[in-house]
Design brief:
By secondary structure, the protein is an alpha+beta fold. It folds into two domains: 1-167, Roll (Ubiquitin-like (UB roll)), CATH 3.10.20; 178-330, no CATH class. The chain is 24% helix and 35% strand. The strands form nine sheets. It has a four-stranded antiparallel sheet. A hairpin with a 2-residue loop joins β7 (119-123) and β8 (126-131). α3 packs across α4 (141-153).
Length: 389
C-alpha cells in the first residue's frame, strides 16, 4: 500500500485554490482518506480565505517605472469571488485572476509606451543621434497578474508589474549595421503664411514619410507611401489646384511635402523618374522651378535609390520650415545645382524656368540633367472657397 498527499496552491491564471490529490492502490482506504482530506482541505481553505480577505482590506502598491500605483481596497473587492467547498458545501472566498487581469487591461494603456526612433544629424561628416532612441514597454498582463495574486496570497502590500521591452527600430547602431554612414542631403521648404488647416495637413503628411527605408535599386513612389488622403486619415479640407480651379479638398498642402522630398532627392544626386511642376507659381514653393506637384491617381513623384545601400528618410518641422533628411551610404558622389533660372516672365504671373543639376561620381564621371518648368498665369484659375470659412 502507498499513499501520496499533495497540497497545491495555484495562484496565476485561475482562481487561487487549495487542492488535495490522493493516490492509493487499495480501494479499501478510499473512504477513510476522503474523510481525512476533507478536514485538511477545509482547514486550509478557511485559512487562505481569511488571509485573502485581510490582504484586500488594505491598499496594494504596484511598482513600475516612476511612482507606485496604489490600488485602494475598494477596487480590490471585485477581485474576490465566493465558492462552495466540496464535501462540506461551506462557502469560502478566493481571488479571481480574470478580474485582476481585467483591471490590468484597463491600466495598460496608461503604462505602455511606444519605442521612439533616434533622430539623426551629421557633425563634421559624422552621423550622430541628435535625439537618442528610446525603447518602449508593454505591460505583461499574465505575468503581472501572477505577481499580484502571489503578493496577496502571501499577505504582502506591494507587487511588481512586469513589462516586455520593445526596441526602437532605428538607432545609430542599427544604421551602422545597414551601412548607412552619411547625410546624403537635406531638402527644405518654407510654408510661412499657410492657413492653419494647410499647416495641419503638412504635419500629418510629412509624418508618414518619417523613418521610411528605401532599399538600393528601389523606385520610390511618393503617392504609394502617402496612402489614402481623406478625413479618415486625419486630413482637413484646404485649397488644391484641380483642373482650371482652386478648390478645397482633403489634404490641401501636401505638395509642400512632395516638393521638399523632391529637393532632397535632387540634392542627393538620385535619378528622378517622375516629376511635374505646379500649374501656376505658388508662393510656398519659392524659388519657382524647384517644386513637384502630386495628386493620387493622377500624378506622382518618383526617384530611384541608385546608391550602394538603403536610404533612411527622416522628416522634421522647425517653425514654418519643413525638412527632409536622406541618410545613406556615401559613394563619393557630389551634386551641384544651377538655378532655377527664370527663362521667361511675361508679367502676367506666368513663368518658365530651368534647373540644371550636375552629378560628379567618385570615378570622375559626370552627369547633367535639367528640370524644365512652365507655369501658367494664376489669373486663369478660379479660386472657390467654402462660404462658411
Amino acid at each position: 500500500m502507498r499513499r501520496v498527499l499533495f497540497i497545491i496552491l495555484a495562484g496565476c491564471m485561475g482562481a487561487v485554490l487549495i487542492t488535495a490529490i490522493v493516490a492509493s492502490r487499495q480501494v479499501y482506504y478510499e473512504e477513510l482518506l476522503e474523510t481525512t482530506l476533507s478536514a485538511i482541505s477545509e482547514k486550509h481553505a478557511s485559512q487562505t480565505s481569511q488571509m485573502i480577505q485581510e490582504a484586500v482590506a488594505r491598499p496594494l502598491a504596484l511598482y513600475s517605472v516612476g511612482e507606485p500605483i496604489v490600488v485602494p481596497s475598494t477596487s480590490m473587492q471585485v477581485w474576490l469571488e465566493t465558492y462552495y467547498r466540496p464535501f462540506t458545501g461551506r462557502q469560502e472566498v478566493r481571488l479571481n485572476s480574470d478580474a485582476v487581469a481585467s483591471y490590468l487591461t484597463e491600466l495598460a494603456p496608461h503604462l505602455n509606451t511606444e519605442p521612439k526612433n533616434a533622430q539623426f544629424s551629421a557633425e563634421n561628416g559624422v552621423l550622430i543621434e541628435s535625439v537618442p532612441a528610446q525603447n518602449g514597454q508593454t505591460l505583461d498582463i499574465p505575468a503581472s497578474t501572477h505577481e499580484i495574486l502571489r503578493a496577496l496570497v502571501h499577505d504582502q502590500s506591494t507587487a511588481p508589474l512586469v513589462f516586455s521591452q520593445r526596441e526602437a527600430e532605428y538607432s545609430l547602431g542599427h544604421l551602422s549595421s545597414l551601412g548607412i554612414n552619411a547625410l546624403l542631403a537635406r531638402g527644405t521648404s518654407n510654408f510661412t503664411g499657410s492657413p492653419a488647416s494647410r499647416k495641419h495637413n503638412i504635419r500629418v503628411g510629412s509624418a508618414k514619410f518619417n523613418n521610411i527605408l528605401v532599399q538600393p535599386g528601389e523606385e520610390f513612389s511618393f503617392v504609394d507611401h502617402l496612402g489614402t488622403v481623406d478625413e479618415t486619415t486625419g486630413y482637413l479640407p484646404e485649397l488644391v489646384i484641380k483642373g482650371d480651379k482652386v478648390i478645397p479638398e482633403y489634404g490641401g498642402g501636401l505638395c509642400q511635402v512632395s516638393t521638399t522630398t523632391f529637393r532632397a532627392a535632387i540634392l542627393s544626386g538620385l535619378p528622378i523618374t517622375e516629376r511635374r511642376p505646379h500649374s501656376f507659381p505658388v508662393q510656398y514653393y519659392n524659388p519657382q522651378g524647384f517644386d513637384s506637384t502630386i495628386y493620387p491617381g493622377v500624378v506622382d513623384l518618383k526617384f530611384v535609390n541608385d546608391t550602394p545601400g538603403p536610404i533612411l528618410i527622416q522628416t522634421s518641422i522647425e517653425g514654418n520650415k519643413l525638412n527632409f533628411d536622406f541618410f545613406g551610404a556615401s559613394d563619393g558622389r557630389t551634386t551641384a545645382i544651377k538655378g532655377p533660372v527664370i527663362l521667361e516672365a511675361p508679367g502676367d504671373g506666368s513663368l518658365k524656368t530651368n534647373l540644371v543639376r550636375t552629378i560628379t561620381y567618385a570615378s570622375g564621371e559626370t552627369k547633367k540633367d535639367s528640370f524644365y518648368s512652365a507655369y501658367k498665369s494664376p489669373s486663369l484659375f478660379e479660386t472657390i472657397r467654402n462660404p462658411l470659412e
